[in-house]
Amino acid sequence: MDGVGADVDGRHRLSRHASRLRPGVGQAGEVQSLGRRCSGYPYASRTRTGSMDDLRLMLIEAARRHSLGGVAVAVALPGEEATIECMGMADRRRGRAVAPDTVLRIASISKTLTAIGLMQLHEDGRFQLDEPVNNHLKTFRVEAPPGGTDVTFRHLLTHTAGIGELPRVSDLVHRAAWGVGRPGAPGADL
Questions:
Q1: Sign for the pseudo-dihedral over CA of 30, 36, 39, 44
Q2: Beta carbons of 41 and 76 less than 8 angstroms apart
Q3: In the chain, what are the domain boundaries?
């Protein structure tokens, strides 16, 4: 069913790729298997209608408005089969369209997904927001700065744990040369 969809600016084409996925068939099969493991929901061999049509139109409009090269969206709802919608080009120069197995940069979306997962565990009573995260870590410890308090789940979720960016070698050299200090204490107003 590749190519079913609508043109966007004459350059992008929204396609439905979900019907092409079969378990164990190359990378697409791996994506399907990964989708099952991560979401807990079966993977679609067909696309949904209704709200998926609205999603397709929103993707087309967003691609046009923001000049997006390509987009892939997965929707997994409880009790329903998951669907992947792909559109646009992964590599315009080579004419390669975005597909379910296309590797995309995820940027900071992992923070949102991690927060959702943590809040689901919190709702299940697995931890308290103001509890130190080290109470639940077995092989790794989150070190508090000297004189600082233990890092809590609330600190991590609100980005107030005092943990800075992962340093690059140039950052470490800069700190050593200029005496720039460590990130602040958990909960500090930086």
A1: positive
A2: yes
A3: 7-97, 109-178
Distance of alpha carbon 178 from alpha carbon 175, whole angstroms? 5
pLDDT tens digit sequence for 81-122: 888 888 888 998 999 999 988 988 777 888 898 899 999 999
138, 140, 146, 150: CA torsion to nearest 10: -50
**Tens digit of pLDDT for each residue in 4-42?**
333 333 333 333 333 333 333 333 333 333 333 333 434
Residues 151 and 142: beta-carbon distance below 8 Å: yes
Helix (H) or strand (E) holding 176: helix 169-178
Question: How far is CA 123 from its chain centroid?
Answer: 21
Is the distance from CB of 86 to CB of 15 less than 8 angstroms? yes
The reported pTM is: 0.46
153, containing H or E segment? helix 153-157
Quick one: tokens of 118? Answer: 């943590």
Length of the chain in terms of residues written: 190
Q: What is the pLDDT of residues 114-161, one digit of tens each?
A: 899 999 999 999 999 999 999 999 988 888 877 788 999 999 999 888
